[in-house]
Request: fold
Amino acid sequence: MASILQPAKAAAVNPLKSSQPLGAAFAYLGVEGAVPLFHGSQGCTSFALVLFVRHFKETIPLQTTAMDEIATILGGADHLEEAILNLKSRTKPKLIGVCTTALVETRGEDFAGDLAAIKARRAADLAGTEVVLAQTPDFDGAIEEGWAKAVTAMIDGIADRAPGRRREPDRVNILPGWHLTVADIEHLRAMVEAFGLDPVILPDVSGSLDGTVPERWVPTTYGGTPIDDIRTLGDARHTIAIGEHMRAPASRLAELTGVDYSLFRDLTGLKAVDRFVMLLSELSGRPVPAGIRRRRAQAQDALLDGHFHFGGKRIAIAAEPDHLYALANFFTGLGADIHAAVTTTGHSKILEPIPCDSVQVGDLGDLERLADGADLIVTHSHGRQAAERLGLPLMRVGFPVFDRLGSQHLLSVGYQGLRDLIFRTANIFQEARREPVPADLDPFRNREHDDHDRRSTPAAREH
Reply:
């Protein structure tokens, strides 16, 4: 088991993590007709908006309560109410997802009470729009916690709470982790549907951040999980949660509706995908389709072809806990060693099982210090300077990736994702490999220099 090393520095030198409110907004963006609302200053929202736009290269409907100095001192309930009503009248969203920031959290306001009062007082004005709250201070946690809190908030605020609801035998809830890309979610949907099952995915960024262009201007998200599907999550036969941080939303849904769940810590390794496929076969009562069996055979062949390039390689990874766990197991499963592991927060239970000696909670400055001697750096685009200074190749993963196109369409889950990830990584190793030149193979090269060194040693002089 890995030991968790807490940060010793007073400040982040080159930040690794993104904030909790950004993670919550990310989850809200996976719902149809949604507008995330940052309860805080305008600067907090602007920073998150820049990161989203640079990563997805899309228009992002992100709004703010625009707290000023007076509201910061006297309280922001009025700003919250005004922002919600303005959004309702101007954009007519189906969901307004409120994310608190450090500014208002530090003051210690009663956000849940304020929002409940607003919804009761303005019930007629807000008819047809769900408003949910996730308390996500910037000073605690990271994108992973924010995503999970927003999903839990949507389950709490929208899902019907009747444990005795009629179950639909072919319906399955999927609660994906934040680190699954658009391509990952689309692939999971296709795998579930191949067994004749009907998946309801929450949040579904594959429908809202997949790069399509609407025929007209839409001020909200124009794809994602429909509100009616969230409301009827209790009709499903089973829930599948992906990532340890999705345990809390799955558990909350089971508590409210009685729908049992299965948790998959990752869906990249062969054993994990086998378990996922067998669960789908059990739920559907059908054998594994031939197409999925064929993709498994292709993944096995990729493992055979690719492991020559991974054996003995030293990998330095910086990522959120669940993403770090999935990546570390992928590399060690192919014979590589985790040379350095850096993460954003030390609260997750997934950190101890990571296959390395220690996990440093820190920033990209810690990664640069620990990665000396590695063969590959694995992190998001902000790690490019460290990779350049160390002269190491960089494999871009996670969020944000703003200096490459199509990161949201890269597949890494399922048999096909495993195959693609092997090829993508092995090609980076091959590109970075320095082929020997004839001079390197000359056994007499530097022989005179080596003989002089041997004669100069103390042992040689004594003899």
Remarks:
- The chain has 18 helices and 14 strands.
- The chain has a mean pLDDT of 91.
- The two ends are 49 Å apart (CA to CA).
